Inverse folding.
């Protein structure tokens, strides 16, 4: 009888340790925006605005705007990263991207391109440290 008690206690201890080792915690979302032109060329130096958008002010909406209105500039690969505290639905606007081209005769032309996308990011309970959301926005 004593042997069964020790065996049962040992199994319960192993289960408790296993459950404790698999504990999960909330991991804040990180949004990585890749901005590119229609032909796939990265849009280097584009100004990107991540925010709630105008529709978020409708009746019944609850906003915690602190930290949810961010602006950044894309790097050499056309990427910009934003970090948030919790889940959200965000508007992603490419505020400014100036494309400069030169034709064969040395004439330089500039076009201002823009883009828009709505994304949903979520804080999740997981054991790993990354909670990345990768989105691509095409400027036209």
């Amino acid at each position: 009888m004593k042997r069964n008690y020790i065996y049962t206690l040992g199994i319960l201890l192993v289960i408790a340790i296993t459950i404790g080792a698999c504990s999960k915690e909330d991991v804040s979302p990180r949004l990585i925006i890749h901005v590119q032109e229609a032909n796939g060329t990265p849009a280097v130096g584009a100004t990107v605005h991540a925010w709630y958008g105008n529709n978020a002010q409708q009746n019944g909406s609850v906003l915690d705007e602190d930290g949810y209105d961010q602006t950044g500039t894309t790097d050499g690969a056309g990427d910009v990263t934003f970090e948030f505290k919790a889940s959200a639905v965000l508007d992603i606007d490419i505020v400014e991207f100036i494309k400069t081209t030169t034709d064969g005769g040395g004439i330089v032309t500039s076009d201002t391109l823009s883009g828009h996308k709505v994304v949903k990011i979520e804080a999740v309970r997981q054991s790993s440290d990354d909670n990345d959301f990768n989105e691509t926005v095409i400027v036209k």
Observations:
- The beta strands are 25-27, 30-37, 47-51, 70-73, 79-83, 88-102, 108-121, 124-126, 132-139.
